[in-house]
């Protein structure tokens, strides 16, 4: 499906007494509020994004657009989440694990580079495994988009931070690139790289594209729209 101009209508809903086994952002009333999901381990709020051409909402698990939030963080920070749902944020590996284990979920990544070119990529499966498994990335097939498939390189990788090195390199990718990510040896994609107002190839990247905006969105897999 081609996203018409990548038009994203950003809306949300407020819902109480729900849990991770339910489907965030699905078949919800479109209200300008944050969606509150009640989990078995506590409360987690998620931001729902409605995109032209798709019936249901997408849960935004990652958002960056101006560099106001520092993504050079510890393992604990990436596990718990940080930032502001109405600004830049990372929802938290533990939250994403609990949401996606009720799956199957699909992933959409929406990006913009420093030439203001809008890009997107979708994958037919997305899950984050448990902390016991070091939040390993379980990624399906690249399904559509207007960029090359760069994320598949990271499939099966454990999450790494500077204080928890799980990559395949003899050094420490997370320390070198000052961010947490599913590094291999090291990366083809790093949406958590240091935010810079310039095109540096070791910062926030998708393939060879230097990014100034990026969002990761998930939803329950739909057989058809």
Description of the structure:
The chain has 225 residues and is mostly beta strands. The protein has one domain (4-149, 208-220): Alpha-Beta Complex (Gamma Fibrinogen, Chain A, domain 1), CATH 3.90.215. 8% of the residues lie in helices and 31% in strands. It is built from three helices and 14 strands. The protein has helices spanning 75-80, 93-100, 173-176, and strands spanning 8-10, 35-39, 42-51, 58-64, 82-83, 89-90, 105-113, 118-123, 126-128, 137-139, 142-145, 189-190, 205-206, 209-220. Strands 1, 2, 3, 4, 5, 6, 7, 8, 11, 12, 13 and 14 form a twelve-stranded antiparallel beta sheet that branches. Strands 9-10 form a two-stranded antiparallel ribbon. The chain starts with 7 loop residues before the first strand and ends in a 5-residue tail after the last strand.
Overall 3D form:
globular
CATH superfamily: Gamma Fibrinogen, chain A, domain 1
In the CATH hierarchy, the third-tier topology is known as Gamma Fibrinogen, Chain A, domain 1
* Percent helix: under 10%
Structural class: mainly beta
Biggest sheet character: 12 strands, antiparallel
Question: If you compute it from the alpha carbons, what radius of gyration comes out, rounded to the nearest whole angstrom?
Answer: 16 Å
InterPro entries: FIB_ANG-like, Fibrinogen-like_C, Fibrinogen_a/b/g_C_1, Fibrinogen_a/b/g_C_dom
GO molecular function, one term: extracellular matrix structural constituent
Signal peptide: 1-18
Subcellular location: Secreted
């Amino acid at each position: 499906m081609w996203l018409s101009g990548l038009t994203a209508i950003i809306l949300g809903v407020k819902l109480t007494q729900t849990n991770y086994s339910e489907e965030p952002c699905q078949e919800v009333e479109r209200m300008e509020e944050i969606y509150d999901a009640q989990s078995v381990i506590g409360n987690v709020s998620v931001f729902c994004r409605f995109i032209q051409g798709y019936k249901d909402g997408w849960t935004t698990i990652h958002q960056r657009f101006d560099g106001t939030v520092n993504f050079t963080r510890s393992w604990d920070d990436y596990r718990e989440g940080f930032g502001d749902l109405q600004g830049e944020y990372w929802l938290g590996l533990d939250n994403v694990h609990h949401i996606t284990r009720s799956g199957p979920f699909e992933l959409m990544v929406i990006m913009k580079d420093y030439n203001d070119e809008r890009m997107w990529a979708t994958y037919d499966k997305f899950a984050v495994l448990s902390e016991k498994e070091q939040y390993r990335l379980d990624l399906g097939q690249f399904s559509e988009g207007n960029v090359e498939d760069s994320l598949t390189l990271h499939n099966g990788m454990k999450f790494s931070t500077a204080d928890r090195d799980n990559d395949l390199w003899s050094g420490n990718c997370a320390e070198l690139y000052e961010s947490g990510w599913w590094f291999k040896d090291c990366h083809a994609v790093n949406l958590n790289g240091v935010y810079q107002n310039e095109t540096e190839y070791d910062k926030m990247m998708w393939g060879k594209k230097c990014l100034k905006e990026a969002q990761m969105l998930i939803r329950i897999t739909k057989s058809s729209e």
